[in-house]
Amino acid sequence: MWPLLFLVLGAALLIEATRFRLGRTPGSRSWVGVEQLERSVLVTLPLLGVLGIAGGVIGWSDRTGPVRALAGGVFAIAFVTFLLWGPLQLPLPRAALPRWYRERTAQRTAAGHKREKRDRDVPR
User: Is 19 in contact with 11 (CB distance < 8 Å)?
Assistant: First the structure.
């Protein structure tokens, strides 16, 4: 019973993370602009989904065998990544960001630089 629950929850989290990552609707882009939400959508949700699916496969597979070993390896890598990325607040690699998000943050950064330059040029 537990392995099935892990598989279903893991798949649901991955589906939701994919929907957010694709950002095809305004609702699926609602997380942009809040750093903690951005990290949750881009890192935490997918990792929890992978952990759920790998945990379900481990629970359902034989005690020994290549499937269980592969799922155990995937689980270990995802778990270590989850533990390191969360508390350490490591920066997200640019390649891991969705294209539409990279473009949007580049525009936001460019606008911020223009605003800073304009503020410096104003006489006081």
Answer: no
Helix 66-88 × helix 45-60 angle, to 10°: 150
118 in any annotated domain: no
Task: Specify the number of domains making up the chain.
Answer: 1
Could you tell me if residue 27 is inside a domain? yes
Q: What are the pLDDT digits (tens) for 15-71? A: 999 999 898 888 888 888 887 888 888 888 999 999 999 999 999 887 778 999 999
Angle 69-71-76 from CA coordinates, rounded to 5°: 95
18-26, Cβ contacts within 8 angstroms, sequence gap of 24 or more? 20/45, 21/46, 21/98, 22/98, 23/98, 23/100, 23/101
Residue 123: pLDDT band (50, 70, 90) is: low
